[in-house]
Amino acid sequence: MTDTVHDGVEPLDFEGWVCPVPLRDTGSVMMGHGGGGAMSAELVEHLFLPAYGTAASSELGDSAVLGIGAAGTRLAFSTDSYVVKPMFFPGGSIGDLAVNGTVNDLAMSGAVPLYLSTAFILQEGTALADLGRVAEAVGAAARAAGVRLVTGDTKVVDSASGDGVYLNTSGIGLVPDGVDIGPRRARPGDAVLVSGDIGVHGVAVMSCREGLEFGTAVESDTAPLHGVVADMIATGADLRVLRDPTRGGVSASLNEIARASSVGIDLVERALPVPVAVRDACSLLGLDPLQVANEGKLIAIVPSGSADQVLAALRAHPLGRSACRIGTCVPEHPGMVVARTGLGGSRVVGLPIGEQLPRIC
Predict the structure, then answer these.
(1) Of 68, 110, 266, 279, which cross-links 179 as Cys (Cβ 3.0–4.6 Å)?
(2) Going from the N-terminus, what domains does the chain have, and what CATH number goes with each?
(3) pTM across the whole model
(4) CA 260 to CA 339: how far, in whole Å?
(5) Radius of gyration, alpha carbons of the chain
């Protein structure tokens, strides 16, 4: 295609084009509505927010930062539900997943996690031995993260209405003075960092659920990230945005950041830390590793001049030893994520519609 005008018709401009997505006009809830992708976003934007009206917060992050008291104390508050299947998987269980997930949502606002609630929804007929293993995992994860379990609830549903154990955890943490981290703070020129290998949790759960083997053991990366975040804050760098790329993976998190901050994000595909086992599994099943969930990794957007300093802090921590820079925020194509391929081309990294792997968190 050239810029020559033929028969009075202007040439097509492909800049900014993306593949159209299927229509999602449905009258009932679908699995994809819980996947953290475009269907989840539509459910929030077109159903929940209009229903909530002025009662809803304008900030829609994984945790809310609330100013409390005349002294300006700021608390972070978060809640999440966990329905992973199976309850036990290589490297973890629904119990430690629930604690670590809520701890991490608080940490992504820079908060020091303090208190958690635990609400169990149990299916009638679930073995008490299995429930005991989950409860022990919750307690061990809370002790490891240094948080207190201060309130909770238990409900039981009939055998046809549940699937073993579901968990809801809510958390409260304290945001240190001077910390200002949020999805709208990314700026052109900022560096995009990731704390380690991506796609591990999703592949671990899938391999256990489907009985698949990929030549090497893949274990979930579930872990509490507030310690590594504290080390990053201690560098004094301006941490603009932090996200833990859980449902929808790195793709969903970066698209949400790009849209919230009105910046484009350019990724270097060869720089993405995708383990061989994850790459092989995704190739076999036709999945995109950028859309596979993680539970012990974070994305950081920092000024380019601070990238090396922050990377050094990440790599000095056991949970960030393979941290690397994967891209840059740019003024072009605002709201869009583009990956530069190894062949010199580019592809649009879109927001997932639903979820590639259901019930992974």
Answers:
(1) 110
(2) 60-175 (3.30.1330.10), 191-348 (3.90.650.10)
(3) 0.85
(4) 19
(5) 21
